[in-house]
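Lecture 7 notes: from sequence to structure.

We start with a single chain of 558 residues. Read the sequence below before looking at the structure.
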Amino acid sequence: MNVSGGQATDFDAMIVGAGFAGMYMLKRLRDDLGLRVRVVERGEGVGGTWYWNRYPGARCDVESLFYSYSFSPELQQEWEWTERYPTQPEILRYANHVADRFDLRADIAFSTSVDSARYDEARECWVVSTDDGAVSTARYLITAVGCLSASRVPDFEGMDTFRGPTYHTGQWPHESVDFTGRRVAVIGTGSSGIQSIPQIAAQAAHLTVFQRTPNFSVPAVNRPLKADEIEQTKSEYDQLRQAARMSPSGTNPADPIGHVLELPDEVRTREMNQRWDYGGAGFMSAFLDTAVNPEANEVVAEYVRDRIREIVGRPEVAELLMPRDHPIGTKRICVDTDYYATYNRDNVTLISVRETPIDRITEHGVVVAGELYEVDDIVFATGFDAMTGPLNAIALQGVDGVMLRDKWIAGPRTYLGIASAGFPNLFMITAPGSPSVLSNMMVSIEQHVDWVADHIAYAREHGIIRTEADPAAEETWGDHVNEVANMTLYPRAASWYMGANIPGKPRVFMPYVGGVGAYRTLCDEVARDGYRGFNLTTRNDVSAAGDIDAKTPVPADS
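Now the structure, written as tokens:
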């Protein structure tokens, strides 16, 4: 099939991943642009993150009525969410409903992984190899692999000797796991640990939690949704969705009431009490200066520590659970149900491995400081090689044989978090350099997918066969991302935002902290200016000698 005057390819576009980004990208390119599209998905079904993360207590930290697509008025009116914060099974049902409603499965190759993808400069297309031995070509390659899909298990000594079952929260079995009467170890107290620990504790004979770094968590205050609030939200969806698109986080929390250090103690305490009792991550938006002023941040952090002291009955355990090594909010704030209260249970033991790390794992359990904690099962809630990990897992080869993982050896480099210089016709959904994990992912996904679809439509309309981020624009954008991050407290935390959870990974703040609305405005300006910052090559730009006389736009403003 000829595309934009180029040579024949198997597909106009190939998409890696059938999560919410991949499904919407498929719909836009196939149904709106009329392209031949193939999605490659390593799982047996759609859902991405929510297909794999089936651990006990898995739940979204964005309210269900807004963790959903907005592109179809009919879809958002017909689907009925049952709880304020949706569980993994409910989100997966929603993903399957979307796939069925828009007949997306017909163009998805399930149980298939992309091993490598190479840009063929002579043919001006991507050559994609999958683990089933197939090789396909496509004019455009779009990665929709998710930011948290490369599970990480630390390389503990003796891992292979443990005689019982082991689990990772990001690769949970599809069948039910019963911990009744079992002695269980959970290693890690990040988001998945905080969600799963109360569920496992309620079932296990004994739960031992191994915590390296305590994290701040706020109550979800989850509850069933009422019919009248669903109806009210649906009647206001147009306004609410638009407000979320232009907000800092892609959500609609209550507005900040001012700068915390300028407010009387009783006013700021009352505001935090109200938000704590209401529940959810909106707790972090109470004040204007929490993310940039260490003193202001400490006011909010100490408030949460006071709540931990109130909830946890044993002072020595409460002290271990209080984060003191990073400003609150500089790691993604956790949203929980009864997490801190779980440590009041007689069958729960908390072991700090911060000062005395895990020595090894034996056939009988976990050894810390020479002491063996005997367990029957081990759950690794040890997180992911975030953002870059899923992309680096694919052998992506661009111009002159350069591998993306080699280009990113000192940290990811992108333009707008969508494209990377030297990798023509490659678009990355919610990649490093975009708001992604700092936002409601559904809002960021839709914004990226729409922008990429519009860019491809523009290219086809103008006979462009190759579009590539300009190196100068990429450098300018990278400087801007770093500049904005350094205006905040975020880089002060050894977080997965910084790659700090992966030994040897460069410490670079990866997401764009400038805000969802501000980022959208910048992307729209780039598009309106003829995709400023991209080198756009038409068939006529290719000289008789075969050299590309590409247009060089002005780098994007920062």
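The first strand starts at residue 11 and ends at 16. Keep this in mind for problem set 3.
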